[in-house]
Amino acid sequence: MANITKAFSPLPLYLCQIGSKRSSIKVSCRSSNRWNFQEDLLKKTSYLQTSYNRDGFNSTKFGLLVKDVKYALRTQINNNNNLVLVDTLQRMGIEHHFQQEIQSILQKEYEQNTCFLKYQNHHDISLCFRLLRQEGYHVSADVFKKLKNNDDGTFGLNLNQDVNGLIGLYEASQLGVEGEYILDEIAKFSGDHLNACLANSDEARIIKETLKYPYHKSLSRWKNKSFINNFKGINGWGKNTLKELANMDYFITKEIHQHELAQVFRWWKSLGLAEELKLLRDQPLKWYTWPMAMLTDPKMSQERIELAKCISFVYVIDDIFDVYGTIEELTLFTQAVHRWELSAMMDLPEYMRSLYKALYNTINSIGYNIYKIYGQNPTQNLQNTWAHLCSAFLIEAKWFACGMVPTTDEYLKNGLVSSGVYVALIHLFYILGLGVSSMHLQDISLMSTSIAKILRLWDDLGSAKDENQEGKDGSYVEYYMKENKDSSMELAREHVIKLIEDEWKQLNKEHFCLMSQSTRSFSKASLNSARMVSLMYSYDDKQSLPILQEYIKSMLDGNL
């Protein structure tokens, strides 16, 4: 069912036959032990606090540190190291304090064609290329053709000494789009040689992390703890200044997130759905994790809270389709959502009425708040996304109830809707006030399609490894093997991984197109939702998600 939710549910439940209740197999999975840390976290954190200025926080000191870094960026006291400084600020998660200065530096680099002319070594060229592309500048990949040694194809690197050059090339190659074969070649070349370096290099930890979680495809907020702790300065400058600033910013941001989480918990508890529908997942921490990862600017507090409400209903409605409903009941619920009238809940079974009312009131409230702020009421468009989501859930329910095996194309096409990605992004679009911008819903659809494919396919890779699912939860891997009788599990997984890589190229293309000033926040947030996937599906041998838990704890209860 919904990919956003499947990442947290080890064993979805299915309809056994048309018109029957879904099996209650391992119902306890709805409160799986792997998420008991949610309760521990709530006990530890001071999330009820309404002030973010703890005793000991020195706002004057914080302001001076920001001022020092801005001076460094504006005066170029680091000479050719300004790109390294920009990269450092992004990796530390404090770039939001310096957006104007960073944009000025990158604009100058772009106008001067610096990637082609100024930088000589592979690392600097790769860094320039990556930073510019991340911000939407159309830098040609042809810059790398000059580096290639046509005699042996080694790109002129001393493979025994220039590990940083290899890392730079690999990181840059992740920002390619379809048809940029030089970047495909660089990705293979640098990836192969970095793997070869793992056994003998002193930088084995960094190499391993780069290969598994390249920067462009990972959440910087998840990786910044390690980066900050290992930061040694930039040619002797900034070690203490940047570390102290990053630590102070981290604790401010952590308390903001704690405060937001408290509001999400109170809202969820006020609905009373967890008490009324005992089989629903009662896990608002998970739902809040998505907007926390997507919207990284600390100032976007209300936006994160509103988006968390939307995402929570993707989970909850998925549970209704997974656990509670017969086909007849689910059809009635889908019809009621299409009608979008409060009176429609009277046609529903008793257990569905509170959920329908909560969805109706919450989405209408979000729409009205957007109208008050931006002068445009998007409720009709928001309602339409919920209707389409329920229709996609119903199609899957009927497949499983009848024992039908869809084709891979049918499965993936419906999965793009049932993933819940488009629902989240269309709400984000209006929450950010973009309904009055020049951005079109078609742009959201293109971005959503790529993210939903990445999510769905990654989910199915994880499901394919989950022996507990016993093949009951339909997956692309399963259906691909049925369509291709000669394919092994290994070949099927390789095929899916290739599809994911291709979709990242398409997502990069859409990201570059949406990096104008007005749509930058939406594009970056959307990209972060795709980056979240690698954390969501980093299963261990026990089918738990330790990396995701580590990320959540570090954001809400950790110390640098």
From TrEMBL:
CC cofactor: Mg(2+)
Annotated transmembrane regions: none
InterPro entries: Isoprenoid_synthase_dom_sf (IPR008949), Terpene_cyclase-like_1_C (IPR034741), Terpene_synth_N (IPR001906), Terpene_synth_N_sf (IPR036965), Terpene_synthase-like (IPR050148), Terpene_synthase_metal-bd (IPR005630), Terpenoid_cyclase/PrenylTrfase (IPR008930)
Pathway: Secondary metabolite biosynthesis; terpenoid biosynthesis
Residue span, Terpene synthase metal-binding domain: 269-506
Annotated Terpene synthase N-terminal domain residues: 62-203
An example Gene Ontology molecular-function term: magnesium ion binding
SUPFAM superfamilies: Terpenoid cyclases/Protein prenyltransferases, Terpenoid synthases
GO biological process, one term: terpenoid biosynthetic process
Record keywords: Lyase, Magnesium, Metal-binding
Protein name from the UniProt record: Terpene synthase
Native organism taxonomy: Eukaryota, Viridiplantae, Streptophyta, Embryophyta, Tracheophyta
